[in-house]
Design brief:
22 helices, globular
Length: about 450
């Protein structure tokens, strides 16, 4: 890239282009750990003279990064306290579900979806995957995965697909949401509130999840494993948990309180109006980042059974790599716009695709994000596609907000390959889901997601 002439762009943009291509190759090949590549991007930008040190590394102080930190602490508490496992086992042993595999299937998928709304999709898959294996074992599915066991395949794919789709429903559900929101806020000076995001993406993601669940339920009906039978093992596992522990109660209270703080400014504005002084004061004093960090702090303050709800030794096991990757991604995305490289790429794409309006830009951004997320991390997809979508909108004279949000959401819709998302890798790594089966269902969900996102965006762009 550096050897090619580039008279149409600045020297800084030219050098950033070379760095950008190198980072994309490293992300897609995973020749280096993703967080290391995320740190390499700003380092190379400084050494190549693309921007000053303070400007480049300012991305690591982005408020949205600390929203990610707070949400990771809360998710970790949910995991180490055992609260997530308790909730799952209680629901899966309800009288109208127990012993009825076809009813367990949609309820299990809905659990994966709901938990992933508030914790990372990776943490959700790690929590729910062992429960799926327990269910299959109790149904006599000790070894699934030959492609003929439709029930087992459906249950395991619901784990990964449900976790990825549930992450769309809230801003904190998956890191690409926060990366996209961070880039949008840095470039546009505004972003949707927690409640505004949920108002759009809960119905959209739930619709996609329900269609996916229906596909698996219809497919599983022909599997003998779906026939009703007793499942005493799940009940025994639930009973072994005993009564709620002080720690579980504390985590539930702190988690619930944090959700209330996340939603309170938006709910107040909804009823009192955005111009209401109290609504404006709440928005100023209770941004999502502050609420997340306050909730995280209370995990170390509130006592539970003679000890803090969570200790630092437990907390420090959160995914620091994703946080470093987030900072590098926001940095790279910001430089794409500030150097003019994003504008140049956007202009070339606009002319090649003949784009003239916001809907066309949205469609291109969504398709690029989905298929890039198939071959690289969804975090990388958001980092690269959201800035280009913003630049494309400016190129055609359109408001970038809706197209950029659609591209952000599309970055989480990689379902086809084990490398697309960590939940896919967890499930595929078990050897119980053949690659061809994952790809077949995954491409159907990819196209359904693309159609839904473009359709919803079209309603807002009318």
């Amino acid at each position: 890239m550096l050897a090619l002439p580039a008279p149409a762009i600045t020297q800084q943009a030219h050098r950033l282009g070379a760095i950008w291509i190198a980072i994309v190759i490293l992300w897609m090949s995973q020749a280096l750990p993703l967080p290391v590549t995320g740190l390499l991007a700003p380092t190379l930008a400084v050494m190549a003279g693309v921007a000053p040190l303070r400007e480049v590394f300012a991305a690591f102080g982005d408020p949205v990064l600390f929203l990610l930190v707070g949400s990771f602490f809360l998710a970790r508490a949910f995991e180490v306290s055992g609260l997530g496992r308790r909730i799952a086992l209680v629901l899966l042993t309800l009288p109208f579900v127990a012993g009825r595999p076809l009813r367990i299937l949609p309820l299990y998928g809905l659990l994966c979806y709901a938990i992933s709304m508030w914790t990372s999709n990776t943490a959700t898959a790690a929590l729910m995957f062992p429960i799926a294996l327990s269910v299959l074992s109790m149904l006599g599915h000790g070894k699934a995965g030959a492609g003929r066991e439709r029930y087992a395949t459906g249950l395991l794919l619901l784990c990964t697909f449900g976790a990825s789709i549930g992450g769309l429903a809230t801003p904190v559900g998956t890191p690409p949401n926060l990366i996209g929101l961070g880039l949008i806020e840095r470039e546009l000076g505004t972003r949707p509130s927690f409640l505004e995001w949920m108002t759009v993406f809960v119905p959209l993601s739930l619709a996609l999840h329900l269609v996916m669940t229906a596909i698996f339920v219809v497919s599983a009906r022909r599997d003998p494993a779906a026939a009703p039978r007793p499942t005493p093992g799940l009940v025994a596992e639930r009973d072994r948990l005993g009564p709620w522990t002080p720690r579980e109660r504390a985590v539930a209270a702190i988690f619930g309180g944090t959700i209330v703080l996340w939603l309170l400014p938006g709910v107040w504005s909804l009823f009192a109006g955005a111009a209401d002084p109290v609504a404006r004061r709440l928005s100023a004093l209770l941004p999502e980042t502050a609420a997340a960090l306050l909730g995280a702090a209370f995990l170390f303050i509130v006592p539970a059974g003679g000890r803090p709800t969570m200790t630092w030794d437990e907390a420090k096991a959160i995914d620091w790599g994703t946080i470093l990757l987030f900072g590098g991604g926001v940095c790279l995305g910001g430089l794409l716009l500030s150097t003019g490289l994003g504008e140049a790429i956007a202009d070339a794409l606009r002319r090649a695709a003949g784009l003239h309006d916001a809907l066309g830009v949205t469609a291109l951004g969504v398709v690029l994000a989905v298929f890039l997320s198939e071959t690289s991390s969804n975090t990388a997809a958001a980092t690269l596609i959201v800035p280009i979508t913003i630049a494309l909108c400016r190129n055609v004279g359109a408001d970038p907000l809706v197209p950029a949000l659609a591209a952000t959401a599309a970055s989480s819709l990689g379902f086809m390959l084990p490398v697309s998302t960590a939940p896919n890798a967890i499930v595929f790594g078990s050897g119980r889901v053949p690659l061809g089966v994952m790809m077949r269902y995954g491409i159907v969900l990819d196209f359904l997601g693309i159609a839904l996102l473009i359709g919803v965006a079209a309603l807002f762009l009318r």
